[in-house]
Amino acid sequence: MVGILLARFLGSEDYGTLVFVIAASMAIKQLLDFGTSSAFFTFLSQQARSVKFVAQFWVFFFVKYIITIVIILFILPGSWLAKIWLGNSSAIAVIALMAVVFQSDFWTIASQLLESQRKTIRVQILFVITQLIHFGFIFELHYLGIFTVINYLIVIGLLWLIAGAIAVTSYEPVRISSSSADKEVFAADYIKYCLPLAPIILLNFTAEFLDKWMLQNWGGAKQQAYFAISVQIASVSLLITSSFIKVFWKEIAAALHKGNFQSALAMYLGARNAIFYSGVFIAAACIPWVYEILDLLYGKSYVVATAPLILLMMYSIHQSIGQVDSAFLLASGNTSVGFSFNMLFAPIGILITYILLSNSNVLMIGWGLGASGLAIKMWVTQLISVNMIGALIQKKFDIKFSYLDQIKVFSVFILLAVLIKVMLVAIFPYNNYIFAFGVGLYALSCLFVALVSPRIIALPVNWMQLIKRHLVYNPII
Prior knowledge:
By secondary structure, the protein is mainly alpha-helical. It has a domain at about 1-35 and about 50-175. The protein has 18 helices and no strands. The radius of gyration is 23 Å and the shape is globular.
């Protein structure tokens, strides 16, 4: 919803600029993190930790960003900043970085502190309240006529700084540690955890930054905006994943720390299947209606994003599986699985982006596809990456995935969604709101198929009994 308001209030040009500076800041944040936040959460999930453990991490966290700001403002040459930020000033670069750090780094880690103590409800309440205030500030800036990129970044930076501070102060660390209750975690433990991740983080930083930089450089701010709104809508299918991924990570880390390997594997396989089904269900529901969704939410000026949105809907399905795979590997400490593959594939992805986005005509390199080109690259590379990492996990842990079932489930769901749209458009007068009825009919059709012939969508015949048995032995409340 925030993205919709920003796209409407700022317009495609300013919104594209906002997206670019935030994306560049996210890439820098990822580089500076270097896997330390993942190590912190994994160590925190294993057992109760002392005040000293938490305080040391926060000192490291803030010092690295202070040094980065000094480098941007006083050390980097102006010509470098102009090239990196494509005309945006160093002030905007710093403000954008701090806004991103407070919202997606400080707040995220602070909320993980509470989740490590299973205070998930408190985290969710604080998140909802902060988001409501976020909405209020957007409308207030628009009403006052001062809605600019820089003003918005300042406001959200301060807002998420306060939310993160509240979360940190709500955490209850172990006051007195003993050798039996709280084994000290030293810098060597962080290095051992993060070192295998270092080359991958560097490559991911380079790839993510260059993706957005090349899109901004050759496609312009409008193509950046079209790609951004496509990502926003496609991310709907990731809501279920993001809502429980940290809880899943925590439980896997705790189970493995206690030596319950089979329990951890069972949780992983169950989560992987559930995430895939939910992702396919949501993506298939939206794909036939992408034009109508864009027109209704963003307006006619954004319907040209139809093609990248369809591609990113496909991408989001395997992205959710990839998040589960990554959480499992990180929680189990297997940070080197897939290392060689990522080292090889990341540079290839950068080359593909250059070919699809640039305007060069040399040797047919430079197709100038803009947002659609970047969406194609992301979909293809994610599909290959997830399946390759999945194959490595199967080999390492001696488990099996059914790729044929994945194809079958997606084919059935998308066929149902397309047939329902064709039927509705043929029967009723066409309008942008008909898709709401179509999505509801699609959901009922999927449920009907699951009840009448569950094997068509790769469900066990007794899936209802399995769910009922699970709820009996694992009640929600």
